[in-house]
Design brief:
Layout (H helix, E strand, L loop, with lengths): L7 H5 L7 H20 L40 H4 L3 H14 L2
């Protein structure tokens, strides 16, 4: 028997089973895969899932008693007013804040 290159793939493809148990197993696998993929975190724009997605950072100033919004992690979570403090006083304020929130 001579093989035709255009129909060679037809012989290699497995046939779908008509047995009811196979259909049940395939449906179970499909449902399981859908649920697992739904439970996994969604990827961000760079393809990596962020662990902090949905988590709001505490953006308050780290100086005790200050109600101002901080300038973020780049500025050690201090507001503009407390950024002018000497570094030693900033370190003391950070240590005190960490002790209160530990």
């Amino acid at each position: 028997m001579q093989s035709n290159p255009n129909t060679e793939y037809l012989r290699q493809m497995p046939r779908r089973s008509s047995h009811p148990f196979d259909a049940l197993a395939e449906r179970f696998a499909q449902i399981f895969a859908e649920r697992v993929s739904a439970a996994l975190p969604k990827a961000g724009p760079n393809g990596a899932a962020s662990k902090l997605r949905g988590l709001k950072r505490d953006m308050s100033c780290r100086d005790p008693g200050c109600k101002n919004r901080s300038k973020g992690p780049q500025f050690r979570f201090f507001c503009e007013e407390h950024l002018k403090l000497p570094k030693k006083k900033q370190d003391e304020a950070l240590a005190k804040w960490a002790g209160m929130h530990a």
